[in-house]
Structures are given as structure tokens and as C-alpha cells.
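Entry for the shared binder. Reason: the reviewer on the internal report wants the predicted structure included alongside the sequence.
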Amino acid sequence: MYSIEIKAESGLTPKLATQLIELSKQIPELDRPLTSEVLNQRLQGKKCLILVAYVGGELAGFKLGYEQEEAIFYSWLGGVASDFRRLGLAQSLLEYQETWARRQGYNHIQVKTMNRFPAMLNLLISNQYLITELNADPRSLVDLNR
């Protein structure tokens, strides 16, 4: 049996940034690993929640989000390293974030994802998240004039 621990932080430290950057390299869906610049741009100076999941003391997953508007929390980015999938970590991180957001007074959580991430789509739909907007990716359109 695995011991699973989720740690929550409200600010980005250099050590935490390094951990997130290294973990992002273990998540195949993230085609571009995180950088300190991107993390700082998204999280610094904002009310944020940084969740880090550990399995048996080993860094396994994360979920990052921040206040977008007064009552809206934006769930920006997350993932679970390949070696730690199918343990329920993504669900646990989502539930932790939802509970935290509710206690902070947020009425809505906004998430953006893409069709190329079916596991994330399934997670969101199974947790009653609603699709409120669709954006076509020009790269995914079929050219019927070929």
C-alpha cells in the first residue's frame, strides 16, 4: 500500500519552483517543461494554490491554480508522473483544490483543456465540470479541399 501525501503552498519559493520544473519533465503530456519564468509570471503576486502530491515520500504530481477574478479560481496546470498514475492522485488533487477554493469563497473554478488530453477531459466530466466554451485548434481542422 502506498502512502499518499498532498502538501499545499500559497506561494512559490525557488526550491518549490525547482521541484515543479523537474516533475514537469516526467509528465509526457506537457510538451514544454515548466520554467521559473513561466511559474513566476503565472503565480507571483496572485492569490494562488500550489498542490504537490507525494507517494511514499517521492514527488509524484502537482496542481497549480490562482485567482482569476474575485469569485473565480483558475485551475491552470497539473499532472501526475507516469510512474504514479492509476493511484487516484489526479482525483485527490482536484478534490483538495475544490475544497480549498470553496473555503476561500470562490464560487467557480475555471479550467481549460484540450481534446488531446482525454484523461483530463474524463476527470473533469466525471466530476460534473461543465463545458462552457469550445475553441477550435486550426491544426486539428480537416482540409476538405485537398
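Summary line for the report: The first strand starts at residue 4 and ends at 9.
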